[in-house]
Amino acid sequence: MLAIFHKAFAHPPEELNSPASRDGSRKPKLPEETLREFLSAHPANTFSMSFGTAAALAYVSPDRSYPTHQRLFGGFDDIYCLFMGSLNNLCILNRQYGLSKGSNEAILVIEAYRTLRDRGPYPADQGSDGGVKLFWGVAADGSVVISDDLGVIKAGCAKSFAPFPTGCMFHSDGGLMSFEHPMNKMKAMPRIDSEGVMCGANFKVDVYSRINSMPRVGSEVNWSNWEDYH
User: Fold this and answer.
1) I want to staple 159 with a disulfide (CB 3.0 to 4.6 A). Which of 18, 42, 59, 124 is the partner?
2) 168 forms bridges with which residues in the sheet?
3) Is residue 197 in a domain?
4) How far apart are CA 156 and CA 204, in angstroms?
């Protein structure tokens, strides 16, 4: 799976960008090059979708040469989800969110996001075990690159990458935030690789730092500009 959010649309945390990416022998690539290489590596079973100059999503359908995690793509209300893996409690969550029995994990995640966005009465997250690992990094032009393939991230982002924090979402305006603790800020912790070089940063919930307020909004408006309120 590969997701690219261009610099004009989303801004990665400064701590994710390592100085070693500029000074080392291996330089980060432009996002277009990373996407092209990802698609060319799996020409027969790759799906991709671009959103103008804002973003691009791509994934490889499972086969014998690629991991067998389920991959789903869904869209609703101008929200799009690329889901990999499965939920053991999907039926229970579908009932909780008022979805039909046939709703898959991608649709559920979209509804969970809409619930969190609109501050509905249901919890947007029911626990995260990180069953499918994700990584994210910074491309040569400052774009955000997210993938489950560590090799893709290393090739495209050089030293400016890290594991994507479990139980979190990255919002184009609000930045990185926790589903489980949306009122707490995220804290960056520098990562040092086996060569002793700074390699991006890990992020965790800062239990001592809270957002002062979060605006309540209706179903027609999201709270993407909530950072203006603290």
Assistant:
1) 18
2) 178
3) no
4) 24
